[in-house]
Amino acid sequence: RLNADNARFLLLAVLIVLYMLCGAAVFSAIELPTERQAKERWEERLENFTRRHNLSRTELRRFLREYEEASVAGIRVDDIRPRWDFTGAFYFVGTVVSTIGFGMTTPATVGGKIFLIFYGLIGCAGTILFFNLFLERLITVIAYIMKSCHERQLRRKGVLPHNGRRGSGTSEVDSLAGWKPSVYYVMLILCVASLIISCCASAMYTPIEGWSYFDSLYFCFVAFSTIGFGDLVSSQNIRYESQGLYRFGNFVFILMGVCCIYSLFNVISIVIKQSINWILKKLDCRCCHRCQRKLFRSRRNVVMPGNVRSRRNVSIETDAVNESDTDGRRLSGEMISMKDFLASNKVSLAIMQKQLSETANGYPRQMSSNSKQNGFSGGVGALAIMNNRLAETSVDR
């Protein structure tokens, strides 16, 4: 029987494949008719051109292929600025290290391609590390602000004294130290922040680049999410009004947008993980309901899974204490502060090698309560930051 982590992995893989199949069907139904119409118009123009100038179709197609090769090298019909001057090269390396990769500028020489492999290897790794650290600090600031607002609400209700001291041992005050913001509130805040940045950036791109406002929003999502199709690319004209100011604003908007969308994607991944856990829990309850009833009838003074935490809101904190392997693990995501992040990652290479060796040799691995995680265990990067635990952001800090 597959363990819980493998079941989650397989379910996520199946859902992603189904999601891709549905997306392919929708895009094919929307875009294919337009593509066919454009191809018919092009064939008609090509036929009229060859007939008017008495050219063979083969020669004309050969000429068009040569133009396509020149276009890849950066040659255009209109006289535009060189793509590989210093400013153009700096814009190119920005798209490389941020993994956007618009594709409008690519190295054509063997030396440039070889250098890009090593340059991108280090640059992308460093940028991802920067995004992870940015995400950790952003979540810590959001948690601190939300906790301060929560404390103000308690003071207005009279539950928490205005001097900050604990009252007569009420449950509200006792639970304040362990209070964590809901992952859904964090996701809402990041959504609003990303939307505000995209709207402000679109207001700048629309008059300067000559795009429609909708095309500007489309470009913002494609660029900020590092998809980078390359059909719309900013800062490519030969001249702009206030060119230096525009390039600086373009850089700032792309940097802020990528950071916010990257953080939003990681928070959404927590919600997806919670949904997968919920689906697996429902499937497990339906398939093994009778077996579980027999098992719990044979045990006395046992708390049924889900009864203890059924009234708790889903937050970004998962308490590993008092969790058992039978309760399916708590459905929540987790985030961490810099202090707890450094403390939780003080694992030496020898311990990691020992765990890998024991796993490979089939030895039983002892799992402590602190090592049990909800969803996909372990992990590196931003998802691991949120999957360990969110720091307690107290007012005393």
From TrEMBL:
Please state where this protein is localized.
Cell membrane
InterPro entries per UniProt: 2pore_dom_K_chnl, 2pore_dom_K_chnl_THIK, K_chnl_dom
Provide the Potassium channel domain boundaries: 76-138, 188-273
Cellular component (GO) terms are:
monoatomic ion channel complex; plasma membrane
How is this protein situated with respect to the membrane? Answer: Multi-pass membrane protein
Establish whether keyword DNA damage is in the entry: no
From the UniProt record, list the reaction(s) this protein catalyses: K(+)(in) = K(+)(out)
Q: Which PANTHER family match?
A: POTASSIUM CHANNEL SUBFAMILY K MEMBER 13 (PTHR11003:SF57), POTASSIUM CHANNEL, SUBFAMILY K (PTHR11003)
Give the protein family.
Belongs to the two pore domain potassium channel (TC 1.A.1.8) family.
Ribonucleoprotein: is it a keyword of this entry?
no
Kindly list the GO molecular function terms attached to this UniProt entry: metal ion binding; outward rectifier potassium channel activity; potassium ion leak channel activity
Q: Gene3D superfamilies annotated for this entry?
A: 1.10.287.70
This protein's gene is called: Kcnk13
Where exactly are the transmembrane stretches of this chain?
Answer: 6-30, 89-110, 116-146, 183-205, 211-233, 245-265
**GO process terms (BP):** stabilization of membrane potential
Alphabetic keyword roster: Cell membrane, Coiled coil, Ion channel, Ion transport, Membrane, Metal-binding, Potassium, Potassium channel, Potassium transport, Transmembrane, Transmembrane helix, Transport, Voltage-gated channel
Q: What is this protein called?
A: KCNKD protein
